[in-house]
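During the no-cost extension, the postdoctoral fellow (Dr. R.K.) reprocessed legacy sequence entries with the updated structure-token encoder. One reprocessed record is reproduced below for audit purposes.
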Amino acid sequence: MSVWLGLYHVLMRGFHAFAPGRLRQRAEKGKEDPERMGERLGQATRARPEGRLVWFHGVSVGESLSALPLVNQLLTERPEVQVLLTSATTTSAEILRQRLPAGAIHQYAPLDTPQAVKAFLDHWRPDLAVFIESDIWPNLLTALDQRAVPRLLLSARITEKTARGWQRLPKTVAELLRGYGLIMAQDSASDQRLRALGPEVAARLGPMGNLKALGVPLADQPEVRDGLAAQIGTRPVVLAASTHPTEENLIAHALTPVLTQTGALLVIVPRHPLRASDIRFDLEALGFRVAQRALAEPVTAETGVYMADTLGELGVFFRLADLVIMGGSFGQGVGGHNPLEAARLGKAVITGPELYNWDGVFREMFDAGCGFKVANAEELAFVVQTLLETPQSIIEANRRALNLAAADTDTLDLVWRHMAPFLPQQEDGHAA
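Re-encoded structure tokens follow.
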């Protein structure tokens, strides 16, 4: 173990004593589930089922949802294998509660303290660990290696910022990465950055495959959608999806003249519905008449903004939308959200400048003519107004979005073929 890993191990061991207090503070802000905080300390709330167990981990909504096609494939091909899926955010836990297939278990991922990691691994005893993207925790990875648990890194995303940070400790990073039996980068830039870490890492690289390109269209609720459509009438709908703090104000303020001129309805789906009251206060201070879905308030002719502060209904609002603005892209530190969720429903997207988490996918959408990048509020207003004034351009962009979403149909088979050799053997000893 390198000096840096040893130091990190000691520091995190000491931090464990303060972790419960820190978790309570986060729970007060809605960032932890107060009833399941023990899971973050490695204290399981579900029994481990008998048999072989494959553990998937995706830190947040996008990563964990992108694992579901593989989870479904595993449960179909190897029904005797048990599946555990962990994530680290309350929003991902709620959405997975709705979408996780029968037979799979969700738990919150443990903090990267030696004590939490040990408790977690002692209980679950995974036969294979599958990590999605780049959530790399040294104590966890080291503990898996010490227990000889094979691990894979799929849909690996290494941003330029991450790569620069890794360059400060290249030997430590290489030591952690070479413990993976297989690494599949999600795009060519990530692949090149991984190869630059040296031959031991490069030797573990398989073909590229982006799990976030997979997935089925988000669920519809026709009765709900028909009811909302009747309230909205013929007004154009501009959807701001998965927004974060400050974005609601920026988008609403930027679009005020456009909404007034066209009579369009702005629908906001915040990434974290717990922020709803704060968002409403800010929007009403800007002069908007706001209707709030969680309060069952209807859309009327006077409604300027409809706030869909619910979970699991984004598919409904994508279907209702004429234009889609993807949130998480107008502020610092988020890096955008999955535009393919809109594209699978035949919707082009508008995005702000901060989209580093989805660089590769957005580049494909820009090239295909179904994505529009704006640098600021003024450009956002211009693009929205231009598109609303040319309905045929929206129809064409939406058609291209649907075609792009349907194009990458071989990714699941590719990833499955390369993951299959690492799956645990059948209980009778025959290879999987």
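The domain at 222-407 is CATH 3.40.50.2000 (Rossmann fold). The chain has two domains: 3-214+410-422, 222-407. The remaining legacy entries will be reprocessed before the final report is submitted.
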